[in-house]
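Q: Fold this one first, please.
A: Sequence and structure below.
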Amino acid sequence: MRKHFNYTLLVTCTVGLLAASVDMPLAWTSPNFIKLYSNDSSINPLPRPITEREDSWIGSLLVIGAVIGPIPAPYICSKFGRKKALLVTALPIIAAFFTQAFARSVYTIYATRVITGVSLGAGYALLPIYIGEIAEDYNRGMLSQAINVFWSFGNFLVYATGPFMSYRTFNVMIAAFPASFFLLFLLLAPESPHFLVAENRLDQAVKSLMLLRSKAKEEVQEEINSIGQQLTEQKGNKGLKELFATGFVRRAFFICLWLVFTQELCGFSVIFFYLQLLFRESGSRISDELSSLVMALFVLATSFVSPFLVDRFGRRTLLLVSCSGMCLSLAALGGFFFVKEETSASTLPIYWLPLASLVMFVFFFNFGMSVPWTITAELLPCYVKETATTIITSLSWMLAFLCTNFFHSVTHKIGIGRTFWCFAGYCFVAGIGIYCFVPETKGKSFTEIQDVMKFGGVFQFGSKKVQGESKDAGENKQSKEKY
């Protein structure tokens, strides 16, 4: 079975170029804020240094674009197909990166940040859908988590090259990534077989699966029939009414929404937007450029962990370990800044603590906090997936906007240390919630996952029997074909 995996992996890697591209704007501010604050005209492309308020807008306007981006995504996705939707997603970010390279006004940067945000929001909404629909049951978790490797690679590239390149050269360089995706994906990637079956374009669906699975027509017919059966069972209204009308769909939606919110409420966007400035604020003996480079290496290295573990230990385990580790690392980081700001004690003996804490934060974030997007693609039925993903993505970026835009205000009120303790406290609460309410989806087909959500109790513990499932439902589940 695994010998047929190669072309799907190739397509996933091609999609990964877009994942890397849309995540670059998240880390873009870290090395470029240092340049934009500079009085040196050979470093700063603008005629004057930016202000702290402009700093906040440059960071948060990206998130406003990310709130807007997912809104047209489901219409394009369902009307024209997943492939065309991803190609359209790449166009704004290509134009914005090239425009940024030659920007001479802070307002131009404002505009490009909104535009890159549109691609960022649309990418986060569409990438899990496409990968989830081209993958097979046994590797769906691994392929979905592989996107996290490319997201992390986008951050790594920014942190590793941004501090050491000129503003213009850096922006031209990163523009090459979405441009490469556009060309390769256009030539290599097939349309999602799920979309083609839903559109009754069965011949094209067969060809798509033959390419993805490297199998003959007769060998993919069973999977085509399974997709058709699932779409028939889950056919319905794609609007808000259907999303909230059924108990198990409503429950799945709120679980997914809360998990994605956890990515922001643990401090992810704040840390990645202001990473280099945080190192500079800490007064560490280690230079902020070197610290950012070390962080970049850990961002990339640790992103390889979850794809190999998610289908071995399960989604819930990775989430629980992730929340626990982030809680401890953020508590330590908050402790360093509390000592520095609130006491007369010297932080020189623990100058290494900010870097160590943030390295551990990145490790544990990458360990499990990309799993919410995998779970979102798995828990939600096909007939509400596009609508639900749009709402989840937009609301999560709206939350990111609030976190980043008010970060300076909050730290001025309560201090950096207490701010990070708030993030740590949320991680602790999130871990309890995950233990109690998040079902395990490892190794299950989409049909089996829906059965768990329909007939299961609140608590789901991996291989344990689903509580509340009727005998008839159990027999029905056994008889259904796997995805």
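Q: Good. Now the second chain.
A: Here it is, same layout.
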Amino acid sequence: MTRTLVISPNWIGDAVMAQPLLQRLKQQHPDRPIDVLAPPSVAPVWRAMIEVDSVLETPFRHRALQLKERWAYARRLRQRGYAAAYVLPNTLKYALIPWLAGIATRVGYKGEMRYGLLNVMHHDDKPARAMVPFYAALAQDPALPLAKVPRPRMQVGADKVAAVCAKTGIALERQLVVFAPGAEFGAAKRWPAAHFAQLAQAILSADPLAQVALLGSPKDREACDEVVAGSGGAGMFNLAGATKLDEAIALIARADAVVANDSGLLHIASALNRPVVALYGPTDPDHAPPFSDIARSMSLRLECSPCKQRECPLGHHNCMNKMGADLVWAELRPIIEV
């Protein structure tokens, strides 16, 4: 049986936004299994997608060429019988793998001048397309106009949700709002911890039995500690760095609402179709919007934004600082009081 290989981006949010590509590939070849080659940090995202048969975790170091190791790994892939490979990262080193593996059809964007390594070459539009259609376009002939694109979708079993709630002490019968205060891109994308704390106070004042869970990586722990301290602590669960990604995905699947910066966890919530309030500062809400049935994208759309910078180049961070907790509460409150 022939198979399809998808080589994952290195970022969680990008992996989620690439999911519609898998839907389109599965529609084209319903009986062809899809494997995803992904970094260990991103692999749990793909395991929550029903189109994926197997997730193969990359053994390569970040930013390292490791040509000898890629050659050895490509030889292993050759045995799996791939008919086509879709290379989502734009780097040359990831395009090497399907070429070395002798996969007949190798699809991707030009990226780092990957002529020859790829034999179905797509070219990025200027201005750049939104991320979901950007990846979904790889499923069709580069010369054709983009067909209608489905929205990202993920799913988590009820047993996994119950297990992680039992582990973390979160009650299944009480309302749960998830906060995602982190953002890997840089500090400029982060809504202030004091604003998150004020929002938590509003939630718990409206419903004293509500639960607020803060998710993120170990790097987000300090900011989440600030949120808990500023909110008073009651009803708060600081789980940043205390949950693995698959557990965080299960908690998001349980959430009644998610409030998040433009981050991987935001896009996971969107793909799980959870109600979301998405907070955008230096990034463009039209470039990577949430797709939930209930979604609010918040941006002050100041003259200086979106600057797409990791740190505020003007030093004031007004795009996030001036987005007060009262503004976000006005969007969140109707969602959780339904």
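Q: Anything worth noting on the second one?
A: The first helix runs from residue 12 to 17.
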